[in-house]
C-alpha cells in the first residue's frame, strides 16, 4: 500500500497501522498502553476492527497462575509495542510530532516515510526534528520539509519475531538459523510494517507516554 506510485497514478488510501496487528506474529509478548496510561503485557489472541484481546498469566497469592484474557476497545488503545523504547512501537493511536524526535538517527535497517501534502514521498533517516521542520537523509542527499507541508509520517520497521525465535537468537546467535523464522534476518530481508506516527489531519498529542500502572505478562 505504501509502495512508490507511478507518475499520474492515483494515491492509495492512508495505511491503517491497526492492520499491523493482524500481520505481526502473535507468538510474542507485547505491551499495550491505554489512554489512561495503564500498561498490560500479554500475547495477542484476536484482533477485530474495534478491539484487541490479550492473553496473560494471572498470578494471585495462594493460587496457581492461570491464563486470563483482556479485551480493550480500539479507541482506548494508545500504543502497542514489543519493547521498552519508543522505536519498538507496532501501533500508535495518536498523532505526535514530538515523538518523532525519538526516531532520529535510527539504525541502518529502519527508516521513515514522509508523505507531503502535495503527494510527494520522502523516505530516509530522520536526522533532525524541530518545531518547524524535519530533515531526512537519503544516500548523500538531505531533504528539509516544513511541518506545515507534512501530511503523514510512517515508521518503517522490521516486523517483530516470536519470543521463541528471539530466545534462539539470543542463546545461539546465528547458529540458531535452523529456525526458519530467522532466515530473513540473515538475508537482510525481514518483513516490514508501517507504523503511523504523525498525521496532520488528527489532533496532535505530544504528551509523554509513561505507565501509571503496569500489569506484567508473568
Question: How would you sum up this structure in a few lines?
Answer:
The protein is built from three helices and 13 strands. The protein is mainly β and 218 residues long.
Give the arrangement of secondary structure elements.
Blueprint lengths: L19 H4 L5 E6 L3 E10 L3 E8 L7 E8 L3 E5 L7 E4 L18 E6 L4 E9 L3 E6 L2 E6 L3 E9 L4 H10 L10 H4 L5 E8 L13 E3 L3
Parallel strand pairs: 2-13
Antiparallel strand pairs: 1-2, 1-5, 2-3, 3-4, 5-6, 7-8, 7-11, 8-9, 9-10, 11-12
3D structure, described in words:
The protein is mostly beta strands and 218 residues long. The protein has one domain. Helix content is 8%, strand content 40%. The protein is built from three helices and 13 strands; from the N terminus they run H-E-E-E-E-E-E-E-E-E-E-E-H-H-E-E. The chain has helices at 20-23, 163-172, 183-186; strands spanning 29-34, 38-47, 51-58, 66-73, 77-81, 89-92, 111-116, 121-129, 133-138, 141-146, 150-158, 192-199, 213-215. Strands 1, 2, 3, 4, 5, 6 and 13 form a seven-stranded mixed β-sheet that branches. The longest helix has 10 residues, at 163-172. The protein starts with 19 loop residues before the first helix and ends with a strand.
Amino acid at each position: 500500500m505504501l509502495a512508490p506510485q507511478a507518475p499520474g497514478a492515483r494515491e492509495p488510501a492512508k495505511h491503517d497501522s491497526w492492520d499491523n496487528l493482524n500481520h505481526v506474529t502473535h507468538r510474542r509478548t507485547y505491551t499495550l498502553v491505554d489512554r489512561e496510561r495503564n500498561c498490560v503485557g500479554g500475547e495477542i489472541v484476536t484482533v477485530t476492527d474495534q478491539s484487541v484481546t490479550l492473553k496473560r498469566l494471572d498470578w494471585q497469592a495462594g493460587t496457581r497462575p492461570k491464563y486470563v484474557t483482556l479485551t480493550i476497545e480500539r479507541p482506548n488503545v494508545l500504543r502497542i509495542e514489543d519493547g521498552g523504547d519508543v522505536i519498538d512501537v507496532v501501533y500508535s493511536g495518536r498523532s505526535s510530532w514530538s515523538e518523532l524526535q525519538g526516531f532520529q538517527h535510527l539504525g541502518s535497517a529502519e527508516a521513515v516515510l514522509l508523505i507531503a501534502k502535495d503527494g510527494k514521498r520522502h523516505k530516509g533517516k530522520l536526522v533532525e526534528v524541530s518545531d518547524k521542520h524535519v530533515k531526512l537523509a537519503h544516500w548523500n542527499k538531505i531533504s528539509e520539509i516544513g511541518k506545515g507541508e507534512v501530511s503523514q509520517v510512517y515508521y518503517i520497521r522490521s516486523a517483530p519475531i516470536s519470543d521463541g525465535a528471539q530466545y534462539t537468537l539470543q542463546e545461539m546467535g546465528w547458529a540458531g538459523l535452523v529456525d526458519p523464522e530467522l532466515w530473513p534476518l540473515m538475508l537482510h530481508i525481514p518483513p516490514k510494517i508501517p507504523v503511523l506516527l504523525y498525521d496532520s489531519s488528527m489532533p496532535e498529542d505530544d504528551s509523554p507516554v509513561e505507565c501509571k500502572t503496569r500489569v506484567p505478562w508473568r
